[in-house]
Amino acid sequence: MRNLKDVLENLRLKGVGDQPPSTFSAGTKSRRGNSAGSADSASLAGSYASTSATGQSAPLGRQRGAAGSNSRLSDAAADLVKTACQRLNAPDWKERLSGIDQLAELSQERTDLVGQCIVKFMDAFAPRLGDSNSKVQQHALETALQLVHPLRNYLPTVANTLVQHAAPVLSSKSAELASLAGQLLDIFILEVDSEKLAQPFVQAVATGNPRSKPELVDKLAALAERLAPRKPRLSQLHLEPELFRLLGGLASAPGAGSVALKSSAYRLAQTLASYSGPAELLDRARSNAQCTPQAVSMLEDALRQY
Fold first, then answer.
1. Where does the record place the region Disordered (predicted)?
2. What is the pTM of this model?
3. 214, 131, 117, 136: which is closest to 166 by C-alpha?
C-alpha cells in the first residue's frame, strides 16, 4: 500500500495532477449552454457581466455572510441557486452534467454566493459523487477536486455530507473512480478543518466496505497527524475509540483477509501514540470498557513495533 504521507505531500506540492486549473473549458461551457438553453445562458451572462477594475465579478445582491447566513438573496441570485440545484437533481444525466458545470463556474466566479448557500448546493451535488451514470460520477469527482480549495472555508459545514458520499467510491470496481475518490479524501484532509472531519472519517471507517477499509484507516491516520497536535482531546474522543474497536474486531476474527487492515490499524495506533505517548494510550485502552483484553494485547504488539 502506498505511503499516504508521500501522497499527501505530493498533492500539497503539485496539486491534483494533470487536471487543468479550471474545469470551465470552452467545451464545458458549450455543453452547459446547449443543455440549459439560450435563456439560461443569457441570464448567467448578465449575472457575471459587471466586473470591477480588479476583474472580480460584481456581487449578486449583497450576500457576504458566512455559510448558512440568513441574509436575503437578490432575486437573480436566488434564481441562479434554484436553477443549479434543479439541474444537479435532474432525471436527465446530461442536465446533471450541466448542473455540475454551473456549480463549478459559480464556485470560481461567485464564491460568496456558493458559500452562503453551501448546504443547498452540497445536498444537491454530493450525491453526484456516487451517481448511477459513470460519466456524471467521474465528472463530479473531477470537479470536486477543483472545488475544495476555493470553497475550503465553507466546507466544514458540509464535511459530513461530502465524506459520506465520497468514501464508498473507494470500493468501486473502477480503478479510476476509486483513485479520484481517494484523491478527494486526501485533499479534504489537507484543506478542511480537521476538527470537522474527525467524526465523518470515523463513521466512514466504521461503515466502510471491507475492500476499502484499510485505505480508509490509513486516511484516518493521516487525519490524526493533523488533529492530534492541535486538539488532542478530540483525537482521544473520536479517533482512539475507533482504533480500539478496530483492534477488537481484528482480535476476534483473525484471518488472511485482515492482514492489510491489521497493518493499517497498527499505523493508526502508532500515529496516535506518537502524540499522546504509548503509555497514556495503553492506559486509556485498558480503562475503556469496550476494549477487550485481546484488543489491548494487539495494541501492545503494535506499539512494540513502533
1. 12-43, 50-69
2. 0.78
3. 131
